[in-house]
Amino acid sequence: MSLECAGHLLDLSRPRVMGILNVTPDSFSDGGRSATLDAALRNAEQMLADGAAMIDVGGESTRPGATPVSTEEELERVCPVVERLVSELGALVSIDTSNPQVMRETARLGAGMINDVRALNRDGALEAAADSGLPVCLMHMRGEPDTMQQDTHYAQSIEQEVRTFLAARIAACEAAGIARERLLLDPGFGFGKSLQDNLRLYHRMAQLHEFNLPLLIGTSRKSMIGNALGRAVEDRLAGNLALTALAVRDGARLFRVHDVAPTVDAVDMAWAVLQEGTIR
Ligand SMILES: Cn1cnc2c(O)nc(N)nc21
């Protein structure tokens, strides 16, 4: 199981770690640490040195209550970072965006994957993703970040809701000419979901293997951990390492995290158990 990502071959026959690079002033966990270009590059360099297989660059915060940014603002934030990550670090870069213009421009700059929390639902996004030829992560979210936590009730079980949604988005991608083999799936933890539903969905994530596509998991520093353990955002690493180990056993293949080094150890340790042998 591997993905062709703009010249990089991402081997997903074993679990990998994706480092988060927020270039948003209001990102919920790093206080916009990566707001400056040089800081962003230093941050990315460290995450790659720590074992990240790729870097996820986001110019618009998707945390609950986040305010949308203009296309121009998003392009200004992400393009210089993507360009230098690719040209100076030779990094495999994922672009965290729902904006078709940002998809097109960052693909031109060498981004290797599209990570869309809106599963290509925005006008023009399917076409932009199809034209890019890049792999695409489809994530479940109901509503929009600024209001999604106001109503977290679902008529059906959360796992049925997510399966139905992802099946529809896969079909939309195939209809738009995006080959199924280019897709990754993500349950969207923390996006319009209660704590109980996040935990229930996590416990049942293996059900998503029915689609036979790689699973991407993003729970790093999220309120799912904070609410379960009563921990502030800066004290959620241990909780996420526990979640990560569980998801390695359940077959997830990509982990989108802020804390790369400890997560690489957790992934490698859990994987060594499943393989009954070390992998370093
Ligand atoms: C951008 N972003 C924030 N949280 C995320 C998650 O859980 N998954 C993916 N794919 N992207 C996310």
TrEMBL record:
InterPro entries listed in its UniProt record: DHP_synth-like, DHP_synth_dom, Dihydropteroate_synth-like_sf, Pterin-binding_dom
Single GO term (MF): dihydropteroate synthase activity
CDD domains: DHPS
Keyword Metal-binding assigned: yes
PROSITE patterns in UniProt: DHPS_1, DHPS_2, PTERIN_BINDING
Family as reported in the entry's similarity comment: Belongs to the DHPS family.
Name of the protein this chain belongs to: Dihydropteroate synthase
